[in-house]
Specification:
Layout: E1 11-13, E2 19-21, E3 23-26, H1 32-45, E4 49-51, H2 59-72, E5 81-86, H3 93-107, E6 114-117, H4 146-159, E7 165-168, H5 172-181, E8 188-192, H6 200-206, E9 212-216, H7 231-240, H8 244-254, E10 258-261, H9 266-273, H10 280-287, H11 298-301
Parallel strand pairs: 3-4, 3-10, 4-5, 5-6, 6-7, 7-8, 8-9, 9-10
Antiparallel strand pairs: 1-2
Helix pairs in contact: 1-2, 1-9, 2-3, 3-4, 7-8
Length: about 325
């Protein structure tokens, strides 16, 4: 049995009185069969927080995995924390509820624990996820504001099928914009965060409203600079008997953020779950890393940046 202080079991209080498991599994996996198998493996291995999105175009496969595991009694729905996201072409308030309900149907759920605005950028409303003009440039929607969209999410909470709401791919200015008018403050902010992009200012800005920072790309990305090749992180891994991936995940959780990790390989999924606490000296060593790099440029345009377009169209 895991110990009570096991990082795998840690939960972080949200400002709605509920908790989010600190360790989460992201479902950005291009192939539908791989999505189904990986989500099922993550559930069976012990992950209880899952991050989904309309934009990933695989909610049906994720929902099939949820339904199968729940029907077998491997886990109860109340023990899962499931999030999904509103994509940019649905920012008009009248489009929010239909998009949300479509995600619920695809995921085969009666409710979600968290619904996020995927990015603060509104695209031209319609069914095209990447509406473009004749020159190939994204067509944005200047007829709606982020607080307008947020108000529609608040109404979803009122109706009971959405337990919490939040933001994704934002900076401090967008968070402040929503907080100024929000009746329901964001419960979660999901952004890229790792030792090369610690997001400390945003993390500090979340604290007054009890907003949880949820980190994606917690292991960096398979391009230069390679986070998992960092000498400090490799030294900590060697000293603690853990892998560099396990070190990065533990660092994120111990500093107070929730974490997302993704893989279609069951061994890697198991590795990401098998974490343990780092000593304070290791935390300080990682905090002292000075390299700064953002792997995903979605925060600048609303267009996901590090997944090849021909292979996938996700975050």
């Amino acid at each position: 049995m895991p110990e009570l202080n096991d990082l795998r079991l840690k939960k972080i209080p949200m400002n709605n009185g509920k908790e989010i498991p600190a360790l989460g599994f992201g479902t950005l996996i291009p192939d539908l069969r791989d999505t189904l198998n990986a989500t099922r493996s993550a559930l069976e291995i012990g992950f209880r927080q899952f991050d989904c999105a309309e934009r990933y175009r695989n909610e049906i496969a994720v929902g099939e995995a949820f339904e199968g595991v729940l029907q077998k009694g491997i886990v109860r729905r109340e023990d899962l924390f499931i999030a999904t996201k509103l994509w940019n072409n649905h920012h008009r308030p009248e489009r929010v509820k239909p998009a949300f309900e479509a995600s619920l149907r695809a995921l085969r759920l009666d409710y979600v624990d968290l619904y996020l605005i995927h990015t603060p950028f509104a695209f031209r409303p319609g069914e095209d996820q990447e509406p473009k003009d004749e020159s190939g440039k994204i067509v944005y929607d200047n007829g709606v504001t982020l607080p307008d969209t947020w108000g529609a999410l608040e109404r979803l909470v009122d109706e009971g099928k959405c337990r919490a709401i939040g933001l994704s791919d934002i900076g401090i200015a967008h968070l402040a914009d929503v907080n100024r008018s929000a009746r329901i403050k964001p419960a979660v902010v999901q952004v890229e965060a790792h030792p090369y992009l610690p997001q400390q200012e945003l993390l500090d800005a979340c604290k007054p409203t009890g907003t949880v920072l949820l980190a994606f790309a917690a292991l960096g990305h398979s391009s230069e600079p390679r986070l998992l090749e960092d000498p400090v992180i490799k030294e900590v891994a060697a000293a603690t008997g853990k892998t560099v991936a396990q070190v990065c995940i533990a660092w994120g959780i111990q500093r107070g953020t929730a974490i997302l990790t993704t893989s279609k390989n069951p061994d890697h999924i198991r590795e990401s779950f098998d974490i343990s606490a780092l000593p304070e000296s290791a935390m300080k060593a990682i905090d002292g890393i000075t390299t700064r790099y953002r792997f995903n440029q979605v925060v600048e345009t609303g267009i996901p940046g590090f997944i090849p377009r021909e292979s996938a169209r996700g975050k």
